[in-house]
Amino acid sequence: MRVALGVQYDGAAFRGWQAQKSGVRTVQICLEHAVSKVANQPVSLICAGRTDTGVHSIGQVVHFDTTAVRSKRSWVLGSNAHLPSDINLIWACEVAGDFHARFSALSRRYRYLILDRSHRSALWRKRATWHRRQLDAERMHVAGQALVGEHDFSSFRAIECQARHPIREIYHLTVKRQGGGIVLEIEANAFLYHMVRNIAGVLMTIGAGDRPVEWGREVLERRDRTKGGVTAPADGLYLIKVFYPARFSLPGSFISVPGFVRDSVLA
Fold this sequence. Notes:
alpha+beta; Alpha-Beta Plaits; 10 strands; 20% helix
């Protein structure tokens, strides 16, 4: 049978999702070890999106094939018992054989949290990007609208990106002030390597007043990563949801999305 899992993790102490030959700590290695214990056989996991070093997940989706028969409860609680404290399963369900965590996805949604003030926060360390200068969220939002739609995002892909082509479609991009920080939210059919962080870097530069609002469109049209500004830190980046066709009937995450609710949490 094919089983899908909803996964949450704090990415601060991981070298990203994907298992690496060097044997460094990754989400995939830890999760495959735990699920294999429950299945009592080796399993290989396929994820919806391979998050980078330091990136968190609220709504990562993975799938695997197995001959082991377990209840949904057993997959979740059993795997969680073998997982470190910075990873946990949220749900599990049997899915159709044509379901694929990556290729069946319609879109992915990310959220990027920015704490823009003069002093850092111990409580938000590794969970929000700290920018020492106050940013103009409205300018950032306006600049971001030039990126919505289907475009060549060569200016926003890392040099190491191995995607076959740079064409992606952004369905929506919003920037707003929330509590004492700024929340950038972006949804697209797929993302290039470092694409969200490169977009965040450009928008923060505009929000700081170092570049005009039009610079976002100019960077996009150049199709040249060397002209694309600074890559924003991974701190504060969350994969919050992956969307699939309704016919697969995947459960919701039932997890609140991180954000700046009120100033008091920013102490």
